[in-house]
Here is the input.
Amino acid sequence: MPTNLKIAWRNLWRNKRRTLITVASIFFGVLLSAYMTSMQEGSYEKMVDMVVKYYSGSMQVHHENYWESKSINDTFEDNDSLRQKILAHNEVDFLIPRLESFALASSRELTKGVLVLGIEPEPENRLTSLKSNVRSGTYLDEKDQGLLIGEGLANYLRLGVNDTLVLISQGYHGISAAGKYPIRGIIKHASPELNKMIVYMTLPVCQDFFSAPNRLSSLVVNIKDNDLLQRSLKKLRADLTSPYSIMSWQEMSPEMVQQIESDRAGGIIMKAVLYIVIGFGILGTIMMMIAERRREFGVMVAIGMQRYKLATILFYETVFIGMIGALSGLLVSIPLLSFQAQNPIPLTGQAAQLMEDYGFEPYMFFSLAPSVFWHQALTVFLITLLIALYPIFSANRMKLINALHA
Here is the structure.
């Protein structure tokens, strides 16, 4: 180790209290910025997860007119050649066929508009884990003639397992659709909004209800790695021609993408304010350290140490302090945020009600994405390096007589 580095390292521990105060300012800067970023990114991840995992999937294949009309008349016929063409792409994991439309659900004198989703139970469960969300009753099997309904809808219509739900709608090409179905199970959907309006039935039963045999409104395409989404989407668009179209979850939920981007922009401003506070906190402790050691620096220069060497040693000291603070902040923030990610903070009162009104679970979620940690540690460390210019400036501008009488 070069001599200047050794001197800088030893100087740090000559006054442990002063060094620990400076390290603590950097440590708490990393910890607070990582905590704030993890909370922010965790909420975004949950929003995306609710859209992708619990409803839309990574991509969906539709009839080219369906997304504009959302009409059951703009569905397409299911066929093996289409499925094989999609599955031929290595990035594609599995497919989930759906027939989706709206209906009026009724029980006694109560009625409510609902989203009816015809599914194949096992593929659907593979994506959305519906089976694990059944709160009472049983999950659907392939030949089931019954329904799964959301817990909020069941409470509104005052229904339980084995009760009968009446559905009325308009089927394919204007055919009247009506039927009575037993309730096999009640689920608690991850999305509070869907929990109040979702009705699941097996795909053949749904096709029969809407008089749309062998027709689908969408074919959900789940890919193996979300990082390959754009590449896979480009390839599939080249293969799937009219009358099909394929859309990513971002295109199907542009309002969510816009909400995340606008909120992230607001978060950048808040983090900038936090970094300014952190920066001034670190600068204050460094200035205190320099002021306390003015006489020491004066003596060192008076006995022959060159000013540029003194400045170099002070720079190394600040770098060491920055490294210790950033690394210690990382070491504490990783287990802390890992615990928070496993145990999201529940919201209560008006805050919880507001979250549910927007269709989100009333919790504060945390992210464990690597960037949450190293971005903050690197940013605070760079701020420390910038502040390290102050000791260099002080050493070069120091007046020897004043320093010796300090």
Q: What stands out?
A: The mean pLDDT is 86. Residues 16-56 form the longest helix (41 residues). Residues 322 and 381 are 6 Å apart (CA to CA).
